[in-house]
Structure formats: C-alpha cells, structure tokens
C-alpha cells in the first residue's frame, strides 16, 4: 500500500512521462464509483474494507441517497510499477444520461479512459455514448468487464457459459469501435476524393474509379480490445478482485513450462492444453475440450466462490494455503460469506494492481498527445488549422513537447467551474498548532488570568475604603455601568455573528483545469480567451511579445486574470500548491469573475480558444422559478447566476414575460438543480412551475381521408358545424386568399403589396437544416459582413466545400415541379437566421440568395435591396412565433411570389416634386414675407428638401433610402417597419390557410426489464402516449430490452411510475431524440354526418393536439376558446321523493 504525501506528489508532477490523466466512463450502475473506491484504497486514503460501500468520490448528499454519481470529481493517486512511481490523476464521471455533460468535461482533460461494462447487462446506450465521446476527443480507452461475480451468483453460469458470454460482450464493444473507425476512414476518403476532383483536369475522363474504401490499407488492430493485448481486465470491484491475463500467463508458465509470451497469446481464444504432450492446440482438433481461459482461470475462481458460499472449511483452508494468503480471524468467522471472499480475493488478485498496472502500461502520458488531437483542439468552428496565423501554428510545438520550461508559453484549459464551501478551501481550514504556538497561547491565558485577579482584588479594596458611602448608591452606580455596557457588546456580537454566517455560507468557485503547456504559478497573470476570440483579428492590435501583466488596449473577447490559488484535487479535499507543471490536472481559485463555464487561459495572445465541448444531452426540460416571498427576488437572481456557472449543462434565461426559466437535461438533473438553488446558491424558498413543454408548429399536406376514414369531399356535410369551423379560420378584410393558398396583403399605407405562399418542407430537408445549423450561421455571418461592407476574412476552401456539399444535398432532396430552381432562390433561413424554415425569393426581376459566399459577387443596391432586410426580418419574426400558440415554426417554406412597390415609387417622385416646388417658392421675397412660422414637421421637410437638392440625382441608391423613408414616415410609422409587420402577418395567414399541426419533442426510451414485468411496462408506456419500436431479448440473460419513443410532455414522473409498477425491476433511460408531428388537427370539429354520429356535436373524445395547444396558450396568457360554466345550479326533481 502506498501512503500519499503532498511533497512526493509535487515531485512526481514534474516528471511528465510518468503522469497518467484518466477518467472512468460507463453506463449508470455499472460500478464506476466502486472501482474508483478500490483504486483509492490502494493509496491508504480509505480502508479496503470500506471500498465499494463508502463511494468516496460521491461527496454530495443526494449522490449518496440516490446511489448514482451526479458530478465528475478528481483524485490524485500514486502507483509503483517496475521500480518506477507513477502519478495517476483519476476522474470519476456520472453514467446517468442527464449528467452526460459532466462526462464531456472530464474527457477533455484526459489522455486515456477506463470503459467499465457490466458483465450481466453488457453494452448499454451510455456505453455507446461514452465510447463515441472518447473517440471524438481522440483519447485511448482500456476496458474493464466488471461484476463477473453476478455471472456466478445470480445467473448461475458454468465457467464455459461465462466464457462465451464474456466473448460476446467483447465482440459488441469492438463492433462499436469498428463502426467509429470505419466512419472516420470513409470521411477521410471522401475528403481525398473531393480534393482529387478539384485538382484533376477535365481531360482525364477515362480514369478507372477505385472502389476500395481505403480500409484495407489502414492498421486498426491497436484500436480493439483484446485480453492478449493487455487492454482488458476482468473484475468484480465489489469483491475486490480483478485480473488481466498476463498475471495468469506468468503464473502458469512456471507450472506448465510454456513460455509466458506463448501463454499470453493463447490464454484467450479457442485453444486447449494437451497435458500429455505439454502443447497448446487449436480446439477444433478435439471437441469437448475446455478452452485454456476456462481451464486455467475461470474454473479456479468458480471453485473458490463455491467453497466459500457453501462454507466448505477444508476446501477454503486448502485454497488459502495454496494461494499463500492470510485471512484474519474476524473475516473467517464472519456471518457474511462475502466478507471472507473479499479478504481472499483482494489479496490473491487485487483489482487496483491489475487496473493501475494496465493504465500505466497501455495508456499514454501527456507527452504522447497526438498532432491530430492538438490541431482539432486549436481549430475553432469551421476554421482549418492551416488557415490560423503563423504565431498560432507555432504553439503546436509547445503542445507536443508538453514542456515545463520557463520560456514555454502557459496554456491551461478550464473544462468546468465547480462550487465548494469556502470553509473547505485549504487557506480557510484550521491549521494544527505547533508546540511553540501552544506555549505562547498558554502564557497569554496566564497573563490574562493574573490581570483579572489583580483587578478583582483592587475593586474589593476600593469598596472597603469607600465604606461610608450608602450601600444603595454603590449598587446604583455599579448597576448603571453594567446596564450601559451590555447593549453595545450585544450589538457587536450580533454584527459579528451575521458577518461570520455570511462568510460561512459563501460558495467559492474552483476551476477544473489542465495545464497543456508551461508552468502555472500562483499569482501569475494570464489572458482569458473567450469562445469568440480570434487571434487573426486581435494580434495586430496588440504589441509584439506582450503579456497579461502589461497595460493593454481593450481587445474584444480577451481579458486578464490572476491565478489566486492552485489546488491539488483529492476527491473531497483540496491541497494547496505553489506551481503546477504541464500535463497535470488541477483546481484554480479566483476565476469566478472571468470564466462562466469553460475557457482557455494562456500567456500568449496568439493562442486560439479551444473547440467547445461535445455535449451528448440536449437541455430540454424547462421550469419557471420564483421566490415565495417577492422581497427575496435579488437572492434568487444571484443564486441562478451561480447555478449557471456551477453546472456545465444548465441554461438560465429571463423570458419576454419576465419569468426566470431554468433549462435542464432531464428530471433528475432538474431536481438536483432545484435542490442546489434552495440549499446552496439562493438559500430562499422557491416556487417552481409545472414543466414548460417546448412545441413546434408546422403545416402538412391536406389529408385525403377524414376522421372516420371516409374520402373527403364525398359525404354530406352538416351545415351548422361546417359553418362554425369556417368561422374559426376567418381571415380579416383586406387580405386576399386564392384557392391555392396564396395570401396577398397591402402595407398599412397601401404603398406596397406582398404575396406569400406557405408550403411544407420534406422531412429530409428539415433534418438537413437542423444538422447544418452551424454551417448556415457561418454563411449568414459572411453574407451580413459582405452586405455591410465590413472587411471580411476569406473563407477557407474546406468551408466552401462543405457549403457546396450542403447545397447539393438540398438540391437532391428538393426535387419536383414545385421545387424547380428553389435552392438557388433561398433568401433566408429562420428563425434566428439558422433555423429549419426557408424563405424563397420568387419575385420577378429581383435576384437575391444566401449563396453569396460561393459566388462572392456583391450586387449593386436598388430599391428592392434597400428594403430587403425588412422582408427577412418579418419572416424571422413569423417563424419565431407561429399562429397556433406562439411557438417556433419548423419545416415550413414561405415563398414570396410578388412584391409590388410601384405605388411607393410614385409617392416618392410626387414628394420630391412637392419639395422642389416648395423650395423655389421659398426663394421669392414676396412669398417669404407672407410665410407663416413653420411647424417642426415643416422645418424638417425643408431641411430634407435641401439635402435632396444637394444630393446627386441617382435613382434609388443606398444613401437615398433613409431620406425616402423619412419622407414617408406617416402616421403608420417608418415604411420599413410597415413592411416587417405586413410580411409577418402575411406569413401567419399563409400558414393558417393550410393544414396546421403541432410538433412534439420526443424522447427515445430504452428500458431493461425482466419477462414477468413486461406487461406493466407496456401499460405505463401506452398510458403516456408512448410507442414501442423494438423489443429484443438480451442473449444469455432473462432481460428484455424495449426501445420506445415517448413525448417529452408525458415523460414527467415516468421513471418513478415504471419503478413503482415493476417493483424496481425496470429502469428507463430517456434521451431527447427528435421532433414528431402530432397527427391530430388541433382545430378539428365534426363536419360530416358520419363524424357527427361518431364523435358527437362537441367531439367529446379528447383531441391531444388541442389539449397541448390550449395548455401553452393558457400559460402564455393568450385567448383560449373553451366553454366555462359560470352559473351552475343543482338539478331539482319535480316531485320530492316520498
């Protein structure tokens, strides 16, 4: 056992080659924290008897109660191997899907990871997710197959069955890795093909196409998990044992007399031992033979379990003596056989030894960081590494060397901020007293005591001397003095107590970070690089060789901070450090004012901000919070800011309605955030609204059959009901609607006419727009800077290729007569200029599209272009809040068919003539005398007329826009504003004349359940509008895996209900998946005889879409069409009962 000491650790921090930064990743309840306990106990931090029960890294109270990890926490361990000591920075991460953002923060700081898989449950959804995250961050994984004791105790497998089952799990994990690897190779191949297409001449048309995918030439053997490669450990963390096959290879090489290298290759696989010939042979040569792994490894473990569970004392003594382990009397006499088992196994096959030894030999040190990973970290957004400034590219060498020299630039990445109680910081802890301090304090107390005695004796003498004074006067005098003193001292005490309580309640924020280059020192000044910081734009503004300590001009997204405290993370404890060399994980104090969630710190302004973290979970669950006492609102606002900083995934915002909204990843995450708000950050009682469910609005093609499956248009309509339906979709006067759904509207001052049509987008196009949101945003930024005439950086070729590819995919999916040439006519995307809706420009004689970045031609301004922005703004507003319940639109295409501004042009020329005439008349002296005093508006008109006279007689260029608009600023406001309002209303009416539908957010739900509770699971799913997609039995177990989709609106309390109904035998995992159209029409009323007979006049059966729509409208304070009983009377019978 290694006992940790701070001095030893600080020494080892300087030896970068012997540092390992690792995290433990797995699905929920697969045994990560138990495994971490076993590794921590090897350092003497906790007792080995408590490993697995204490869950040391779960330091929060709710983590201990729920039994799941909710935040990633780090600890530093020492491990000795081959006379060399290693420093291991271990990070334990959560497995629950709601906290997958914590996994992202942990993975970014590590070079390797331990993937833990439950031997019974096998590969689960989060196992997929964590393997993908490790792959995306370019970190190397090793595998621990945990809970093998469950195969013996619960499933009662024979060693042969267990071997087949373990082999199956290994194949499943390797299949995921193979999928990730193949997709990467194919992407690289596609990029190469694109490059060759660009470089090759059109002359080489007779080239033979190479159909090979490039997979044959790439070596991927090192990526897969295989026990003979030494990157797999079989373990039971709760029983304290684990092994890699190299342990048994060494053991049996001496007994059997076969080389360890041969045994290492053959211990896993279909090989068996021919004892007579002392040879290892392939198993197909002789059937019915046990593979080596079963014969030499599993049989021994199974027999040990059998002996201990049956309490076979003779056999146990025999095993103990042959293994050479010692068991204490307490363990051997304990009533629980597991205690005895743990005592034997943890000495025979200690899991910490097996896992840490694998980590040290198979996982890379910070020095082995790959060039690919460095380039990926430094290339923000769509920028390629080659397009970065030369000073930035030079920093790559500093990353690769991971140098701790004084000259090396300091680069630190902060992956998250976490809150700790200020009392737990090392500088605030009570320190142990030395002998000298104790002696000084003792002397001080003696002196005070002596002074007190002297004072009391002096007082007695005075009283005796003043004996002639009346006794009541003395008492009175003494009394007044005594009465005067206490109030002041009480006030001071109260004030001190308040200050002390505030200091105790204060939360301090520590940054969870890693040094990638240089040495971080306490008190050092560094630049904080915001996510939008661009070294290419900022370097020329800063002097050469400047540092954070200099007084510099303000640069956007660049701030300076001081590292106030550096801490070694030791689970629940923090140890103070003076400096931390590169390659180490650390905590940094004093960054609360500079870093919100994550940031890059650097001593060089040439360093780019690192790429943002990949979050698997999308925050989807919203609630509004308010304090129970309105006076406590400031505390709540402050508390929400702190919560936003302390949690990587939570989002905090104030809506237009003034509500303070909290957006979280799921129900468990929401509960944790609310508990933190009440108990840690705001410390006030809060009221929480029902979850705010997000919806989307869309349109569909008109249905061909009605609600009773009759063809529409062939039945007799019920006149009264049909009339009531038409009233609902009434379009106001002045808005023309043709039979094809084209809506024509005039602006308020009748100067411009707009015709808009709404068309549903194909599903593939909507999905494509959602996936390419970032690319659309990049295009939009480029086009807007081009239109505003700002100096823009050239887009690199890679981004242009991506845009070209995106355009081609849109063209492939938008085919048919009505979509002819649609892609080239795309005017804008919305809402927020990058959403899943499209605005098409079908106006004759006006060319405008979003693909300006490809042709790079800046069109000359004309009348339409001047007001172009107003149309786009109206479209953005319309897509941000739809007509049904003010929710954003999705999958809708608005086509502007006509935009007539001839009346506007006429009015402009009339105004100009009037102004010119007025000016000529104003020059005549007679008229001048007779002119009355001008009003404010007239004077404005005159000044404008001068401007117009002075300006050149160009028709309607950009400078003329403001003047023309000012001339027409009539009672309806500026003309551009009228265009925005008209466009917005036209889009809304164009939607209302089509078949409107609501879209609900959907979770994919994966449930593992035993056969006996399947019926109950289905009952809960159907009650909550769930839909089962797939049901399959997990091989080798009695567990079923059910895959279903469930609306987010129906998911609250779902996990609890499933657990209650199945007595805890089924547990669901909910992950946000997609948006799905609700098939019901929210405005449907019976219109035919059959519908009337089937559903009744009021359509009594509940319409799900209308229920959701009305709930949202009520919450937003919009009008809801529902009948409310105002005067209810109890029914009276005519004759009394006798």
Automatic annotation (TrEMBL):
Which portions of the sequence form the region Disordered? 458-489, 935-956
Which first-to-last residue range defines the signal peptide?
none
Keyword annotations: GTP-binding, Hydrolase, Nucleotide-binding, Ribosome biogenesis
Can you name a GO cellular component term? ribonucleoprotein complex
Q: Name one GO molecular function term.
A: ribosome binding
User: Its domain of life?
Assistant: Eukaryota
Instruction: Report domain Tr-type G positions.
Output: 17-261
Q: Does the keyword Secreted apply?
A: no
Matches recorded under CDD domains: aeEF2_snRNP_like_IV, eEF2_snRNP_like_C, EF2, EF2_II, EF2_snRNP_III
Residue stretches of biased makeup (Basic and acidic residues): 937-949
Could you tell me the Gene Ontology terms of the biological process aspect for this record? cytosolic ribosome assembly
Name-wise, this protein is Elongation factor-like 1
Native source organism of the sequence: Eublepharis macularius (Leopard gecko)
Taxonomic lineage is:
Eukaryota, Metazoa, Chordata, Craniata, Vertebrata
């Amino acid at each position: 056992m290694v006992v940790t000491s701070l001095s030893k650790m600080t020494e080892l921090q300087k030896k970068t080659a012997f540092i390992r930064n690792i995290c433990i990743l797995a699905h929920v309840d697969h045994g990560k924290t138990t495994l971490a306990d076993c590794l921590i106990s090897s350092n003497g931090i906790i007792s080995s008897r408590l490993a697995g029960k204490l869950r040391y890294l779960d330091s929060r109270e709710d983590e201990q109660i729920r039994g799941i990890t909710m935040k990633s926490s780090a600890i530093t361990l020492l491990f000795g191997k081959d006379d060399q000591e290693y420093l291991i920075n271990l990070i334990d991460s959560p497995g629950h899907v709601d906290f997958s953002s914590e996994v992202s923060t942990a993975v970014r700081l590590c070079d390797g990871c331990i993937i833990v898989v439950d031997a019974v449950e096998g590969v689960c959804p989060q196992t997929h997710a964590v393997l993908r995250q490790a792959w995306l961050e370019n970190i190397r994984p090793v595998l621990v197959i945990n809970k093998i004791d469950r195969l013996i105790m619960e499933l009662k497998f024979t060693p042969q069955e267990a071997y087949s089952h373990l082999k199956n799990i290994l194949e499943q994990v390797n299949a995921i890795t193979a999928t990730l690897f193949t997709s990467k190779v194919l992407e690289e191949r596609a990029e190469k093909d694109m490059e060759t297409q660009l470089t090759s001449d059109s002359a080489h048309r007779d080239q033979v196409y190479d159909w090979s995918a490039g997979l044959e030439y790439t070596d991927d053997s090192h990526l897969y998990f295989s026990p003979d490669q030494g990157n797999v450990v079989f373990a039971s963390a709760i029983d304290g044992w684990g092994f890699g096959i190299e342990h048994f290879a060494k053991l049996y090489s001496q007994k059997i007399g076969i080389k360890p290298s041969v045994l290492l290759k053959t211990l896993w696989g279909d090989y068996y031992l021919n004892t007579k010939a002392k040879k290892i042979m392939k198993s197909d040569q002789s059937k019915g033979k046990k593979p080596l792994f079963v014969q030499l490894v599993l049989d021994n473990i199974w027999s040990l379990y059998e002996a201990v569970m049956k309490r076979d004392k003779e056999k146990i003594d025999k095993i103990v003596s042959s293994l050479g382990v010692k068991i204490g009397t307490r363990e051997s006499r304990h009533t629980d056989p597991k205690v005895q088992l743990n005592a034997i196994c943890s000495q025979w096959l200690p899991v910490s030894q097996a896992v840490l030894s694998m980590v040290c030999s198979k996982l890379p040190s910070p020095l082995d960081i790959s060039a690919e990973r460095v380039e990926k970290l430094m290339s923000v957004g769509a920028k390629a590494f080659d397009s970065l400034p030369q000073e930035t590219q030079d920093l790559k060498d500093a990353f690769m060397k991971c140098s701790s020299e004084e000259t090396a630039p300091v680069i630190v990445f902060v992956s998250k901020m976490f809150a700790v109680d200020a009392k737990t910081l090392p500088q605030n802890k009570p320190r142990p007293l030395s002998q000298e301090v104790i002696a000084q304090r003792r002397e001080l107390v003696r002196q005070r005591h002596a002074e007190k005695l002297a004072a009391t004796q002096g007082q007695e003498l005075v009283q005796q001397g003043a004996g002639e004074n009346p006794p009541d006067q003395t008492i009175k005098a003494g009394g007044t003095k005594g009465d005067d003193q206490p109030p002041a001292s009480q006030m001071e005490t109260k004030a001190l107590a308040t200050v002390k309580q505030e200091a105790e309640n204060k939360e301090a924020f520590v940054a969870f970070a890693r040094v990638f280059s240089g040495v971080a020192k306490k008190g050092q000044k560094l630049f904080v690089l915001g996510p939008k910081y661009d070294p290419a734009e900022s370097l020329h503004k800063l002097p050469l060789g400047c540092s954070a300590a200099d007084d510099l001009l303000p640069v956007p997204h660049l701030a300076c901070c001081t590292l106030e405290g550096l801490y070694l993370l030791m689970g629940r404890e923090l140890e103070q450090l003076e400096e931390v060399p590169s390659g180490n994980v650390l905590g940094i104090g004093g960054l609360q004012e500079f870093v919100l969630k994550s940031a890059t710190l650097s001593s060089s302004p040439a360093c780019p901000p690192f790429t943002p973290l990949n979050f698997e979970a999308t925050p989807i669950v919203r609630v509004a919070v308010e304090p129970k006492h309105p006076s406590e609102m400031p505390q709540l606002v402050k508390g929400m800011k702190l919560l936003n900083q302390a949690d990587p995934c939570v989002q905090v915002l104030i809506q237009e309605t003034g509500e303070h909204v909290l957006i979280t990843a799921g129900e468990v995450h929401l509960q944790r955030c609310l508990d933190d708000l009440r108990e840690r950050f705001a410390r006030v009682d809060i009221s929480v609204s029902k979850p705010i469910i997000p919806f989307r609005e869309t349109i569909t093609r008109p249905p061909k059959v009605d609600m009773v499956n009759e063809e529409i248009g062939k039945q007799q309509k019920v006149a009264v009901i049909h009339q009531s339906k038409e009233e609902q979709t009434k379009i106001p006067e002045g808005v023309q609607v043709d039979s094809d759904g084209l809506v024509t509207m005039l602006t308020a001052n009748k100067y411009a006419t707009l015709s808009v049509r709404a068309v549903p987008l194909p599903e593939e196009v909507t999905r494509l727009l959602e996936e390419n949101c970032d690319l659309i945003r990049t295009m939009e930024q480029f086009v807007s800077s081009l239109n505003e005439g700002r100096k823009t950086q050239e887009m690199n070729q890679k981004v242009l290729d991506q845009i070209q590819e995106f355009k081609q995919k849109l063209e492939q999916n938008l085919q048919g007569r009505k979509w002819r040439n649609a892609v080239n006519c795309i005017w804008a995307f919305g809402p927020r200029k990058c959403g899943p809706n499209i605005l098409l420009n079908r106006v004759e004689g006006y060319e405008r599209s979003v693909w300006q970045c490809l042709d790079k031609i800046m069109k000359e301004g004309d009348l339409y272009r001047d007001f172009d922005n107003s149309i786009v703004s109206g479209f953005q507003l319309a897509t941000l809040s739809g007509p049904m319940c003010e929710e954003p639109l999705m999958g809708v295409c608005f086509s502007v068919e006509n935009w007539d501004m001839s009346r506007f042009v006429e009015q402009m020329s009339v105004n100009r003539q009037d102004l010119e005439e007025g000016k000529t008349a104003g020059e005549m002296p007679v008229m001048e005398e007779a002119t009355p005093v001008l009003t404010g508006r007239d004077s404005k008109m005159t000044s404008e007329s001068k401007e117009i006279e002075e300006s050149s007689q160009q028709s309607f260029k950009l400078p003329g826009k403001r003047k023309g608009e000012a001339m027409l600023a009539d009672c309806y406001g500026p003309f551009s504003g009228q265009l925005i309002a008209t466009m917005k209303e036209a889009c809304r009416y164009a939607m209302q004349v089509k078949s409107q539908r609501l879209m609900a957010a959907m979770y994919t739900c994966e449930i593992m359940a035993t056969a006996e509770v399947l019926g109950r699971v289905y009952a809960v799913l159907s009650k909550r509008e769930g839909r089962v997609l797939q049901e399959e039995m997990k091989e080798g177990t009695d567990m079923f895996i059910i895959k279903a989709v469930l609306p987010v609106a129906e998911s609250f309390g779902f996990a609890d209900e499933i657990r209650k109904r199945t007595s805890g035998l089924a547990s669901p995992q909910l992950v946000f998946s997609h948006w799905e159209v609700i098939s019901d029409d929210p405005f449907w009323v019976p219109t035919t005889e059959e519908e009337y007979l089937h559903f009744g006049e009021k359509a009594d059966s509940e319409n799900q879409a209308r229920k959701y729509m009305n709930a949202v409208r009520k919450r937003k304070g919009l009008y809801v069409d529902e009948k409310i009983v105002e005067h209810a009377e109890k029914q009276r019978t005519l004759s009394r009962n006798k």
